[in-house]
Amino acid sequence: MTVLKTSMRNFFAHKGRMALSAVAVLLSVAFVCGTLVFTDTMNTTFDKLFAATSSDVTVSAKGASDTGETTADNGKPPVMPASVLDEVRKAPGVKSAEGSVFTSAATVVDADKDSLSPSSGAPTIVGGWNANEARTMKITEGAAPKDSGQIMVDEDTADKHHLKLGDEIGVITAVGTHTAKISGIAAFQVTNPGAAIFYLDTATAQKALVGEANVFTNVNVTAAAGVSDEQLKKNVAAGIGADYKVQTAKETADANRKDVGSFLDVMKYAMLGFAGIAFLVGIFLIINTFSMLVAQRTREIGLMRAIGSSRKQVNRSVLVEALLLGVVGSVLGVGAGVGIAVGLMKLMSMTGMNLSTDDLTVAWTTPVVGMVLGIVVTVLAAYLPARRAGKVSPMAALRDAGAPADAKAGVVRAVIGLLLTVGGGAGLYLASVADKAAEGSMWLGLGVVLSLIGFVVIGPLLAGGVVRVLGAVLLRAFGPVGRMAERNALRNPRRTGATGAALMIGLALVACLSVVGSSMVASATEELDKSVGTDFIIQSDKGERVTADAVQAIKSVPGLERVTEYKGTQADFTTPDGKTLDDTSITAADPTYATDLRVETVAGKLADAYRLDSMSVHEKFAEDHKVKLGSQISVAFKNGSTARLTVRAITSSDGVIDQGAMYTSIATLKKYVPAGKLPLDQLVFASAKDGQQDAAYTALKSALHDYPQYVVRDQTDYKQELKDQIGQLLNLIYGLLALAIIVAVLGVVNTLALSVVERTREIGLMRAIGLSRRQLRRMIRMESVVIALFGALLGLGLGMGWGATAQQLLALQGLDVLDIPWPTIIGVFIGSAFVGLFAALIPAFRAGRMNVLNAIATD
Question: Is the pLDDT of residue 264 over 90?
């Protein structure tokens, strides 16, 4: 009980000094709990949606996926004859059944040809209105569509695009463009996660989405009273045979949940990873805080030991303080985490993904995980200072001698740090010379971990040299004040090393990712310049295939020298070594593609691969399956017949664009795949006649005005788009890393604040002999800048080493240009100086306000 009272007294006596450490714990716990609440809420939202939209049993056409996605390569959904509906209705246990038609491979535009698709990446679904849809949608205005001239839209989409009854919109599919006027607006009865939904009458949906009558994509079946979904599934399957997919509501919902869950898991674990980095940085802050508090209470600890307190009691007293800090920070962090989750939901709503706070899900495990993490991390971080406090002898403490200097421990630390750093360097070297990406990735991971730990351990040893260099370059210009700031930073290398290490971790990751991102852009840009021989690339940014109507619009543009179609499909290969390779990708293109993309060949000519019944393979495939020029491969095309294609060219397996692709001609594909089953183009390439590039560029954009889902890019546009995409990804990662950097800044603030308290008497003496308040504040600011730049130098150097090694692994995939983004690196370094200035504002202000006589009188 005495230990608890002492700990409580000390905790509240130093509550101001504990505050920043508590904030670090709060932020880290809040990020963990916010991530868990946010992803749990999204799971709840989708679970409700899938449960509400799934009928008791669903019958799908052969080829439809478990998730209900019905888009085929030809842009049309796989269908089944309407006669299946009659067979289903005859099955025992069926209360009712109805056929439906829907697709997510459609683009819907308004009268001005502007897309009505969600900007969040959520799907656009067009289907027939039926009783199953009426379970989840309520008509709030107008009426359901009754003929081909009418269409109904969901309320969220209508509000977003200011649509009203009577407005004309167009539905663009592989079949063509269907126009209709809005007859009704329907609201979701469950939370809409952002999809845009449009409804036609069933007969119109069949013609507009599939191009033929008397077919369905799905049959929705409702069970009679007392009949389970499993029993109904067996009855229906027995009645219609094995040519169709039959699923219960649970199976459909589980498949959808798994599909969405894979994305949510990636997001969840990525965010938790950044929270872990923030926790790691927070450990340094807590260690520094308790180390300095213990040092300031040396005499008090000596008195406790002198009156009979054991080492364990002193140790326990410090750990109880840490426990209190962990509890306070974690409790506040759990509450803040719920607030972060709500904020993320609002942010997602702004991007078009609607998430209702009514579905806010706080599982009992979330606060438990947050509390356990916050408390355990805090107590573990305080263990070393607590152990050090217990080792202080009573007489040394009463003399205010502090903890005994342990030269041996310093040597051991230096040796361990050097060994870890050398081991990390060896791991990075082995990664850079690896022949296989998988092996190299393992060495890279090991090298990153060892080098990071090594730099943390060896930080105090590095602090002496680096701070002196920084002092000589930056501080000497400020005269005696600068020299005092340098000596203050050198006074306790362990403290300076720990404070700088907290900032080092975040900046190392920033530098590494900057190098990797910049190298990827530079490599891809060089590859484009070297390999791409076309002027324009036309594609959908959402992965939609190019419809035949759009291709015709492209071909009608004047001033074009050539247009190249590019189709991707799947086939089962039987190679000369007797192996069968299922679902292997093969690319069919026009012969002009050999000009549009300059692919390196190791045998034969790529142009020959576009002859009828011919193909190319890449070098690695040829080696693995004993393929050479003139070999024949049996190719069973998806939705088509089997061909025996002769290998006319073997291409290099290196390169970035179309790496590992195998080519044949569109003429060959048409020979073995029926016209109605031919895949649509993934991309279309176009080249202008000499001197007509600008005019052709404008004409292409004009020709595709009615097809807003497709984007026309020249090579400059393509390079910029690539740069923007990687830049957006890096900005997102930098934003998440900002949490760790904020915690590191708190560490600098706390270190300086406690350092000022620790040096109160010294500051009073300096003021007494003539140091002005302005000079004192400048000294503290300079000390903070040096510590921040020390951490920045270590972090940026380490990160560039990691990034350069990672680029060597990317070179195995064809990204062989190393590009150091010096403007970013220099900007981060300069920014670190401003971080140091900012962190010193409050400590410097408090130091300047000290009463000189009271400061001198302080023990």
Answer: no
